[in-house]
Amino acid sequence: MEFDLDSNPVEPPRPGRLFVERFIHGEIYKARPDVMSVIHTHSTGVIPFSVTQTPLKPIFHNASFLHVGVPVWESRDGFGSTKMLVNDGKFGQSLAVTLGDKPVALMRGHGDVVVGPNVRVATARAVFTDENARMLAAALSLGGPVNYVSPGEGALRDNDPSDPTRSWELWKANAMRKQQ
């Protein structure tokens, strides 16, 4: 289904086909001209980091893009008690402000939003954000200090990112097998 930047369907939708959280995408695209792909997930790996004071930081190279920080959007800020959904433009704008110039923002008790210059990069970031969150939770459970990816290491990877094509092709092949 195709939407304009105000999250209105370009063509009349079939009954029951409008996605309630479509405002996530439109408002981020408005705020971030560098973004060509927006992914919203309900990743169970990241949600614990959205409801605690423990920041989601990178611990492995594929998630080094997290070195810039991962903000947490709180739906109650400015809105009071809500359904915790981004179901209108005001919520979408608020989430876009929280995301700022970052590649990932967590949504308290809900999931995350991940952006990229194309669908392959955004998908890789979404997958690696979840994997990093799960690994970080395991590392934290072991106790002691965690040896995070440093800002310098993250910046080096940002300046020379790996191409997600191999991972993309593998994920695509797996998805196609599951559909058959």
How would you portray this structure in words?
It is built from six helices and four strands, in the order αβαβαββααα. By secondary structure, the chain is an alpha+beta fold. Strands 1-4-3-2 form a four-stranded mixed sheet, sandwiched between helices. A hairpin with a 3-residue loop joins strand 3 and strand 4 (111-116). The radius of gyration is 17 Å and the shape is globular. The two termini are 23 Å apart. The model has no long low-confidence stretch (mean pLDDT 93).
Could you write a compact summary of the structure shown?
The protein is α+β, with helices and mostly antiparallel strands and 180 residues long. The chain has helices spanning 23-31, 47-50, 89-99, 119-142, 151-159, 165-179, and strands at 37-41, 72-73, 104-107, 111-116.
Number of helices: 6
Order of helices and strands: HEHEHEEHHH
Rg over alpha carbons:
17 Å
Work out the helicity level. 40-55%
Uncertain segments are none
Number of strands: 4
Residue-averaged pLDDT = 93
Q: SS-based structural class?
A: alpha+beta
Strand order of the largest sheet: 1-4-3-2
What is the assembly state of the chains in this entry? single chain
Distance between the termini: 23 Å
Largest sheet: 4 strands, mixed
**What share of residues are in beta strands?**
5-15%
Shape: globular
Overview features:
alpha+beta, 4 strands, 6 helices, 180 residues
Q: What is the topological layout?
A:
Blueprint: H1 23-31, E1 37-41, H2 47-50, E2 72-73, H3 89-99, E3 104-107, E4 111-116, H4 119-142, H5 151-159, H6 165-179
Parallel strand pairs: 2-3
Antiparallel strand pairs: 1-4, 3-4
Helix pairs in contact: 1-3
